[in-house]
Amino acid sequence: MVEIVISCDVAWxxxxxxxxxxxxxxxxxxxxxxxxxxxxxxxxxxxxxxVGLMGLAEVxxxxxxxxxxxxxxxxxxxxxxxxxDPLA
Length: 88
Known about the structure:
The chain is α/β, with parallel strands linked by helices. The protein has one domain. About 40% of the residues lie in helices and about 15% in strands. Strands 1-2-3 form a three-stranded parallel sheet, with helices on one face. Helix 1 (about 20-35) links the parallel strand 1 (about 5-10) and strand 2 (about 35-40). The longest helix has 16 residues, at about 20-35. It is elongated.
């Protein structure tokens, strides 16, 4: 039997709290009962750390790769300029 893996985008959870992790763990339990599993995608560093602190790292798999903080950093634009140039 092939297990179905569901990728759950959690980028909208900027700062995880125990209630969010509890809800995700319950969702994982419901999926397991139906022969599926859930992988958390785009989890913030805070959420991933909280999952580990709550002892649920083996239950709630966090997909490795880009995290929300990395995307947010790319939104800012920094320009280099010569300090001797007058400001526009």
